[in-house]
Design goal:
By secondary structure, the protein is an alpha+beta fold. The chain has one domain (69-280). The protein is 37% helix and 13% strand. The strands form four sheets. It has a four-stranded antiparallel sheet with strand order 3-4-7-11. It has a three-stranded mixed sheet with strand order 6-5-10. It starts with a helix and ends in a 5-residue tail after the last helix.
């Protein structure tokens, strides 16, 4: 067999060569044209699902972190109130907007705002020696950027000078632990008569001081339980903020049920814990 015969043996047939050229042309053409709309849509859908799967856990993690932060904030407030009581023999009044975080009243007078008695306001950060984020009115903010509320009892058992028992200097000692009766109440629902829970669902009674965060939906809630805490059902305002006007507050597990939303974080100071700390500091007999 000659060399030319060997080359002819392995030469691609003209028909097959034509088919290869056609296939190669199609591949090159597709590469030049790019992806089809269907292919792009599928890719975008997959990317969207992947991003959605990442965003949801991140949002949940941020919310969980803020819940931890607000609980820490409220625990620090509680500790500071105990320290204040141990040093001064009383609890501090709330602050009002644009008061540099100082309690408004207290000591030789009852809590006052604009010359009128008041017991619902905001955390007196300056008087308690607390730090944290403040708004333009000098009010301590929770992790969602809303002022933390602070309320004290108005109980007056007739000590000296008509001062509230837990606010006036020396009043708690003069009245005595057996007679002291703080009147703030915490219920499991908003059903109350302004001074007591209506359904026998009291969570805590005889509370001297309460502080709470209105939570993530603090600027837009509509449920009765959250409205009860923030005073949105009343016409009373303080620095543009609606405030409570009675002595009843609400707390229960978080709820996202329409019409029954609740995500407030409510903390109160037990009267017995307050008395114990003041006894150790020799502020009470």
């Amino acid at each position: 067999m000659t060399f030319s015969h060997k080359v002819d043996k392995y030469r691609i047939s003209p028909h097959l060569d034509s088919r290869l050229d056609t296939h190669l042309s199609r591949v090159l053409s597709r590469r030049q044209q790019g992806f089809s709309l269907l292919e792009i849509a599928v890719v975008l859908l997959i990317v969207g699902l992947m991003l959605g799967g990442l965003i949801s856990p991140l949002s949940s993690q941020r919310h969980t972190l803020k819940l931890r932060e607000v609980k820490t904030q409220l625990e620090e407030i509680q500790t500071a109130v105990l320290g204040f009581a141990a040093a001064n023999g009383r609890i501090p009044c709330p602050t009002i907007p644009n008061n540099n975080g100082l309690e408004s009243g207290g000591g030789a007078a009852n809590c006052t705002s604009g010359g009128a008695p008041f017991s619902h306001g905001f955390v007196p950060t300056n008087s308690l020696g607390l730090s944290g984020p403040l708004d333009a009115q000098g009010l301590l903010l929770d992790p969602w950027g809303r002022p933390i509320r602070y309320s004290v009892t108005r109980a007056d058992s007739g000590g000296t000078g008509g001062l509230w028992d837990f606010i006036g200097t020396g009043e708690m000692s003069a009245v005595g632990m057996a007679t002291l009766a703080p009147d703030l109440v915490v219920c499991a629902s908003a059903s109350n008569n302004g001074t007591a829970c209506s359904n026998g669902d009291a969570v805590a009674s005889t509370v001297p001081v309460i502080f709470f965060s209105t939570g993530r939906d603090g600027g837009s809630f509509t449920s009765a339980d959250q409205l009860e805490n923030a005073g949105e059902t009343s016409s009373a305002t303080l620095g543009g903020h609606s405030i409570a006007t009675d002595s009843v507050f609400t707390t229960h597990v978080t709820s996202t049920l329409a019409g029954s939303e609740f995500d407030d974080t409510v903390v109160w100071l037990s009267a017995q814990i307050l008395y114990a700390h003041m006894m150790q500091a020799r502020q009470l007999p």
